[in-house]
Amino acid sequence: MHRPRWIVFLVAVIPILALIGGRVGAAESRQGDQCVVAADEIVATDLYVICNTLTVEGTVDGDLIGAAWSAVIAPGGHITGDVWLVGGQFRIDGAVEDDIHFAGVDLDLTDQAALSDPLDVSALAINVEVWAGAVLPGDLLVSGYQTVIRGNVAGRVNFNGTALVIAGDVQGDVYATLSGVDTPPSFIPFPFPFSVSFQPSGLTLGAEGYIGGALTYSGPQEANLQGPVGGPVVFDQTLPRPDITAEAVQPGDVIAGYLNAVLVDVLALMVAGVLALLVAPDWLRGPADLLPRRPLPGLGWGLLTALLAAPVALIVLLFSLAAVVFLAVITLGGFTAMGAAMAVLLDVGVMSGLAFVIFFGARLVVSLWIGRALGRRLIRNTDPWAINLLTLLIGVILYALATNFPIPLIGTVLSVLGILAGLGALVLHARQLYEKAIRPVVPVAAAGTAGQPASPQALDALRGKTPPPPPESSEPPGPGLDDLPPGFTWWE
Question: What whole-number distance in Å separates Cα of residue 252 and Cα of residue 240?
C-alpha cells in the first residue's frame, strides 16, 4: 500500500513514539560541540543528544534520540533500541537492533553496518544511499530528492521524490512516486556541504539491479529498466508541464497537458479560496487592495519572507525537539508525553500554515486582485458573496492560464512573481493590522471647538465619564450660585 508524504514526515521527524515507552525517567543526555560515546563506554539507558558532531563508538543500551549536524555510528558502535535523529549527515557503520528514523540531508548505510532482523529505515532526506555490500533486513521508506540502492534490501521500498536508482537487490515490492524535476532541488545551498552525487530524475533499474516483487510507480516518463523485475510492472504516467518548443511535439498533447494543468490549479485554488472567504475574508481582500498600491515593497517583503520560511520552520522543529529532550532529561514522567504531543501539534501547525500561505494564500491574493481588476466591468450582481466568488473565479482562471503557459521559463517566472507579490501583500497587510493595534488613540475635540484643545470635562465626556457631584455641605452657596435656573446642576 502506498504511503502518502505526510505519513513519512510524521514518522521520520517527530520522535513521539520513542518518548512514550516509559523509559524517560532514567534517560541520559549529552549536548555540546562534540559528543562521544567512547569505545569502552556503555550507556545503560536511552541517550538524548543535541550536538554539532556525534560519534558513537561504544554501546547505547536503549534508544538514541536527538539532533546532530554530523553523526556517525562507528564500526564498534552499538544501539540496542531505535534511532530517532534530526541533522545534516548520518552515517551508520556499526550495529543497530531496532528501527532507524532520520530527517535531514544525507543518510548512508555502509557495508560495515550490522542491522538486526527485522529493522526498517524511514527517512525524510535529500539523499539516502544503501552502499554496495550493505544489507537492510526490512523496509526502506524515503521521501526526499533521491535514493540510491547499491546493496540489498530484504523488504519493500517506498519512495516519494525525484530520482530512484536501484543498482542492487530489492527482494520485496517497489512503490515510487516520481516528480518531473530535472535539476537538484533549489533549496540546496552552494557549495553543497556533503559529498553527494546527484542523479538524473526518474527511476533507473541498472543491469546489475533486481526487483523480486512488483514494481508500481508513477511519473512523467517511463523507467529505465535494464535489470529483471520478478513481479508485474504498473506505470501511471503523470503529465509534465507542457512545452510547445520541444522537438517532435504533438499539438494535441500540448493542449491536453496545458488544460489538465490549468484545471488542477483552478480546482485546488478555488477550494482553498472558498475556505478562505468563509473563514477569513479580510485576509484576502485586504492584501488584494494593497497589491496594486505597493507592488515593489510587496515583492521585496515576499522575497524576504520566502527566504526566511525554511529557517523558521527548522528553528521551530529544533526548538520543539529540544523542549521534549529537556522534559525527558529532567524526568517529569507524564509531562514528557504531553510535551511531545504539543511539539507534534506545533510542528505540524507551523509547517502546514507556512505551506498553505506560500502555495495557496499568496496565489489567491494575486488571483483576487486580477479578478477585481476585470470583474468590475463584467459582473452585474450586487450580492457581496457572489461578487467575491465570481471575481475570485475569474482571477484564478486567468492566473492558472498564465502560470501554466507551455513555454519554458515564462510560466515559472510568472508563478514565482505571483507568489512573491501575494506573499508580500499578506505581510504588508499583517504589518498594517499590527500598527493599528498598537497605535495610541488620541481623543478629538468636542463639537464646536475645532482647533482648540479639549478640556478635562470634554475628555471625560468623550470617555463616557461624568464627574461626581460635589459633597453635601451646610455651607451657603457661593456668590452667583443662588439664582441658577431650577434643575440646573453645574457639575454635569
Answer: 14
Let me know whether 303 and 364 are in one domain: yes
Higher pLDDT, 217 or 466: 217
What is the distance between the alpha carbons of residues 74 and 58, in angstroms, rounded to a whole number?
A: 8
> Left, alpha or beta for 22 (phi > 0: left; psi -120 to 50: alpha)?
left
Q: What is the pLDDT of residue 334?
A: 55
Cα separation of the two ends of the chain: 80
Question: What is d(CA 38, CA 55) in angstroms, rounded to the nearest whole number?
Answer: 8
**Structural domain for 299, as ranges:** 251-438
Same domain, 221 and 296: no
Determine, yes or no, domain membership for 447: no
Report phi then psi at 368, rounded to 5. -65, -40
Residue 395 lies in a domain: yes
| Cis status of the peptide bond prior to 118, with omega within 30 of 0 | yes
Mean pLDDT of 266-277: 87
Q: What is the mean pLDDT of residues 308-313?
A: 73
Q: How many domains does the chain have?
A: 2
Residue 244 CB-density burial (10 A; 0-12 exposed, 13-18 middle, 19+ buried): middle
pLDDT at 383 over 60: yes
243 lies in a domain?
A: no
Residues 166, 291 within the same domain? no
Rounded Cα distance between 466 and 475, Å, is 24
Report the pLDDT value the prediction gives residue 336, as an integer from 0 to 100. 59
- Does the pLDDT at position 8 exceed 50? no
368 in Cβ contact with 284 (< 8 Å): yes
DSSP-derived 3-state class of residue 166 = strand
**pLDDT per residue as tens digits for the range 26-44:** 468 888 889 999 999 999 9
Vertex 58: Cα angle to 52 and 61 (nearest 5):
100
Q: pTM of the entire structure?
A: 0.55
Cβ atoms of 182 and 203 within 8 Å: the answer is: no
Closest to 210 in 3D by CA, of 229, 188, 238, 231: 229
Euclidean distance between CA atoms 347 and 357, whole angstroms: 15
CA nearest neighbour of 359 among 427, 296, 420, 297? 420
Q: What percent of the chain has pLDDT over 90?
A: 29
Q: 10 Å Cβ neighbour count for 57?
A: 18
Q: Do 263 and 387 reside in the same domain of the chain?
A: yes
Rounded to 5 degrees, φ, ψ at 452 are -105, 140
CA distance 362 to 425: 8
Residue 413 in grid coordinates = 517566472
Higher pLDDT, 390 or 463: 390
Who wins on pLDDT, 21 or 485?
485
Cell of 176: 515510487
Higher local confidence (pLDDT), 115 or 305 = 115
Q: Quick one: pLDDT at residue 188? A: 47
